[in-house]
Amino acid sequence: MTAQSQPVGEDFIYDYDTKMNNLNAVTYMWEPMEFHFDNRMVELVRSASSMVTKTLGLRDFFRIDFRLNAHGILYLLECNSQPAIETGNTYLEIINNHYFESPHGAQKAFLQKAFMRMGI
């Protein structure tokens, strides 16, 4: 699915404050979109993710955001070295449902790895 924001006013800027505190300023329209990655694109994302992870020294739990344009060009948007891990986070719910049997499996695994590294 794709999200299209419809800002109010010509000089509108979609910033952190709008995203987190002023959601009424933006209307999201969701349109179904079918897209399948070919093996080349999957390998490109894996390779780029690995390079970014090593370069930035990311570990345990993080998120790397990419966007793919209509011409098949992949763009790195940002790296979240401490993404939200609270209950109710959509990304965590997807990860927990897909990879863990517990609704808090990802959080538990994240903490266990950190404690092991610290010798606790």
Q: What descriptors fit this protein?
A:
120 residues, alpha+beta, two-stranded antiparallel ribbon, 4 helices
Commentary on this structure:
Helices cover 40% and strands 21% of the residues. The mean pLDDT is 77. By secondary structure, the protein is α+β, with helices and mostly antiparallel strands. It has helices spanning 16-21, 39-56, 90-99, 105-118, and strands spanning 2-7, 26-31, 63-68, 74-80. The chain has four helices and four strands. The longest helix is centred in the middle third of the chain and has 18 residues, at 39-56. The strands form two sheets. Strands 1-2 form a two-stranded antiparallel ribbon.
| Strand line-up in the sheet with most strands | 1-2
Q: Helical residue percent?
A: 40-55%
Q: Give average pLDDT, whole number.
A: 77
Q: How many discrete domains? A: 3
- The end-to-end span amounts to 42 Å
Largest sheet: 2 strands, antiparallel
Number of helices: 4
Uncertain ranges: none
Beta strand count? 4
Radius of gyration, whole Å:
17 Å
